[in-house]
Specification:
11 helices; globular; alpha/beta; 19% strand; TIM Barrel; eight-stranded parallel β-barrel
């Protein structure tokens, strides 16, 4: 067997596979279930300052290339999220699986308040979601759209928490490397890339978009080449650890992401398609690949495709 263990900002992961935010991350029970199914770490659904009902149905549709969704960041708000995370942290401690809290906010100052508030739950890591592509009607251009706004949010978060945090970026920018570098310079501890990719599906017979929000975020295998390119560019630009995600559904997919320079690998749409057991399946497939190709550990494989 190869060594699948992964150190991420001092967190010891049994394997590099991380449950992506927004998938089975709404309750302590679901997070515990995913951890028991073999995830190396789990991310709770993104939380904002106030409760959000999200968008009206239909909000998520599977299609030939993956999934398109516009959930609208449904969440209970900071006040109710803290006890949820505390319970999840207690359950996950028994399994030795780190908990990542995910936050979003409408303003730079609100990101600071969210960072301070969510820190009370003592998650192992905070994901700063500045790149959700399907709430633009609510918030305007995502903060990840420019180096300046990325840096402003990053600095505000750094001022308001002592916990390590990762900044989640979008591929929908001219240079994701410049955005990542701005986050690094402003004090981010890690980068997560990429978020879903903005898109639209139309039902021709109804002459209408399939989602109530009209546009949504595309995830699944169709965006894997985009994600690999972005992670490779980020890896060349910064020294921070990276959680690479986008289209990961098999062990070979995970290997490719690590070869592009990712430290850990996020899994999202594949959970919807293969079930929570996908983590154990991908881990076994990754182990089989590494054994066949004579990689004793992840470090021997990391970034090899871009050297």
């Amino acid at each position: 067997m190869s060594d699948l263990s992964c150190n991420f900002l001092g967190l010891n992961l049994r394997n590099p596979l991380v449950l992506a935010s927004g998938v089975l991350g709404t309750s302590p029970g679901l997070l515990e279930r995913v951890a028991a199914c073999g995830a190396g770490a789990v991310t709770a659904k993104s939380c904002g300052p106030e409760p959000r009902a999200g968008h009206a149905n239909p909000i998520s549709v599977e299609w030939a290339g993956g999934v398109i969704n516009a959930v609208g960041l449904t969440n209970p708000g900071l006040k109710d999220e803290v006890p949820i995370l505390r319970e999840a942290k207690a359950r996950l401690r028994e399994l030795g699986v780190p908990l990542i809290a995910s936050i979003f906010a409408p303003t730079v100052d609100d990101f600071g308040r969210m960072a301070a508030g969510i820190s009370a739950a003592e998650p192992d890591l905070i994901e700063v979601n500045i790149s959700c592509p399907n709430v633009s009607d609510d918030f305007g251009t995502p903060f990840s759209g420019s180096p300046e706004t990325t840096a402003a949010v990053t600095r505000k978060v750094r001022e308001n928490t002592n916990l390590p945090f990762t900044v989640k970026l979008s591929s929908n920018v001219p240079s994701i490397a410049r955005i990542a570098l701005a986050a690094e310079d402003a004090g981010a501890h890690a980068i997560t890339a990429i978020n879903t990719v903005p898109g639209m599906l139309i039902e021709a017979r109804a002459a209408s978009p399939v989602l109530s929000n009209r546009v949504g975020g595309i995830s699944g295998w169709a965006i894997k080449p985009i994600a690999l390119r972005c992670v490779a560019e980020i890896r060349k630009a910064v020294k921070l650890p990276i959680i690479g995600l986008g289209g990961i559904s098999t062990g070979q997919d995970a290997a490719e992401m690590i070869m592009a320079g990712a430290t850990a690998v996020g899994v999202g749409a594949a959970v919807m398609q293969r079930g929570p057991q996908v983590f154990a399946l991908i881990a076994q497939e990754l182990d089989d690949f590494m054994n066949a190709e004579h990689y004793p550990n992840l470090e021997k494989m990391r970034g090899i495709a871009i050297r």
